[in-house]
Fold each of these.
Amino acid sequence: MPPTAKFKARKLTDLSPTEFENLVFDLLISRGMVNVVWRTPGPDGGRDIEAFTVQTDFSGAQSVSRWFIECKKYVGSLDWPTIYGKLAYADSMQAEYLLLCTTSKFTPAAISNVDLWNSSRRKLKIRLWPGQELEVQLKQHPDLRLKYGLSASLQTPGYSLVSLSLALSKSVASVYSEL
């Protein structure tokens, strides 16, 4: 296939459940999560992926937050009882965040109950990534879109490739100027 050839891009809903979990896994790493662990296949203890974020405050002190991530490749909307079941695991395991990612969307009742949960000053916070939010997140990572066939262009340089090229260019320029 010539380098300028185009192919039909896949949609999130075209991914298999395993591909979807892998995509979310890669996206979490690209967004800066650390110690990312895929918990499936098999009994996953209420989460598909477990990861951590590290925040540094103004004084330089760091705090670590534990995230449970659940990936749901659904055609229909994700409801509150499904979220609540995952919430019980995350709460009992003392996670600070539960992130639910889906290829579809969340029911209005699910969104209302999540808002109510988050405003009740509980330690565990729930975050929702419906399919449309995942699309927004993926626009910032063209390398992932290309990796999973979600981009129609074979010539889109990936973020990782561009970053690596810039770092290499800076290194070569530094050595050259030093010589």
Amino acid sequence: LGRLLAELMPDEPEVMGLLALILLVVSRRATRVSPDGDLLRLAEQDRSLWDRGLIAEGQAIVGACLRRNQPGPYQVQAAIQAVHTDAPSAAATDWGQILQLYDQLLALTPTPVVALNRAVALAEVAGPEPALVLVDELDLDSFYLFHAIRADLLRPLGRTEEATAAYDKAIARTDNAVERAFLQQARSQPPHR
């Protein structure tokens, strides 16, 4: 569908951004779940299994969008995915660039979910404490990922009881069995120090 839209509207930057976003997200599809069906975090995914053809195509479209200099939300989201797929390892991810892109996305789409995702990038750049300050200002109580991210930020700060309570809230807010199992496993991990 994304390719059809791009064929019908080749001069529309946001359509091209949407196509790039789809390609880059789909390029990692085979590695999002373990052979046992467990969710895998981005850092746990086997990057050698990512579809390099889709990545190259998506990154080329992102490059073309950047040259047009007419940014929109889909293009910025695609650029964020391009940075992730460009990193040879999780440790090599350019989180500073991702944070800058989230700043731009938040200016274009000032929603609590974008702010939450930006806080994740901020935690990678500046640590969990400043990210937690931002997360705690968001009104996303019904969103399970809000609580999961809070838990992930609380744990390295040594706030284990609060992290456990946040995981419990996240678990209570999803009906997806795979997500629940992932969160229960994260909840049972020993505290980070």
Amino acid sequence: MLAVERRKQILEQVHKDKKVIVSELSKQFHVSEETIRRDLEKLADEGHVIKSYGGAVINEIGSIDLPFNVRWKSNSVGKQKIADLISHEIQDGDHIFLDASTTAVFIAKNIKNKQHLTVITNSIENLLELSDITEWDIISTGGTLKAGSMSFLGIRAAESIQTYNADKVFLSCKGLDIEKGVTEGNDEASSIKQSMIQAAKKVYLTVDSSKFDRVAFSKTCPLSRLDVVVTDQKPEQRWMDAFEKNGVQCIYPEETNENN
């Protein structure tokens, strides 16, 4: 196995388990502990992990973007639940923004039965997923390609977004905090989401339960700027109270079941 592939698998594991042990990784990958330590040092230098005694833990600060294929595997069940809920929020003929989150790709896969949609996105994965739907208008923002996140960022992408008026925007985030609001890992990603928010009539935050009570590096918007939060399970009561206080509707699977 190549070192880069081994480090990718280590990163997937630390993202899943929040920590890894050198001795266990050494046995798992059939390499020396010294080799694993070098792998962890490389991941630490890239900002993904923090080295600890005998291993490493995930870097919770969230200022570094994980590769798309790593993020894709994180809580895929929760993301599918969110996508199922979102499909009821999109109507035929809607003009929508989809951001470059992995949740947005689940949404894209789930809404192909809709008619005459216009989708504006900065995500390469969304463009590929929807490329076979000839009756929709699929619009790329363009911009500077950020390969790891499979997204277009930068001033050109933001300028493109600002030329449109959409009915709804569906975006995700690195962290959601009652006081700090919606946060992202870096200014570039945050700026694109801000442009989408400004250009849409209704703002949906699609966020799985792991993102609650987390604060990432760059502030995107306060809680009060959201219209709807769609998540994979009912949040704690203090969150429900915060949503009500800020005029935010919260949609989750249990609520749907209770209303049926």
Amino acid sequence: MNERRVNIISILEKTGFASVTLLAESLGVSDMTIRRDLDYLEEKKKIRRVHGGAVTVENCNREPAFEQRAANLIEEKRNIARLAATLVESETTIALDSGSTALELVRCLVDIPQLTIVTSSIHIMNLCLSHPNIQILVPPGHLRPHEGSIVGSETVEFLHTIHVDQFFMGVGGIDSKAGITEYNMDDIAVKKALAANAKQLIVLADASKFNKITFAKICDLDLMDCLVTNATLPKNLQELFDDLGTMVLTP
């Protein structure tokens, strides 16, 4: 394997996802050269191609740490958050999961009056401490330290009693056949409980999540009411969402 391809794998291991354009600029070659490299590396099962770039094979089943995810694709997540915030009205109750994109979203919601947020995220709770206009509803349970989320049977049982206007959910992957998937079973149980009692399920996903399958399934694609993303969808997903009547919001 040549040095450039080794460097591609190294970049992906550090970032979790890298676009073709970023790899080309970082390594001083053309987009076409990077695409050929990615095709070769995928054939050797070293990486997995996704829309616009690639992820490591390991990242399909191993969840990156929250700090790593929060530092990756920051501008993309902020764009998604700003767009998603336009869907939130005052005097409503929403749920936010423990993902890094949901954390960016809450930064855009702090001035909305009489907003109630249900969340299992310690990061979101801490951020809202200085915004008394937001009412935070916190489920019981135990702390998942590396993620900063509350999980467990008590959490799920409590959330099954809660009804919200909107649930903004981050995901590990979106695939036309596998549906919406995530890495951790505890987090999946929390997401399922919130999705079951939400009037509207809104998925927040950057381009690295398209045509990607992670460890376990959250739900089928037809349960999703709206997808907020930062990029044009792959053709197969766009056609599927058109058939399902799923709203797709892009900047």
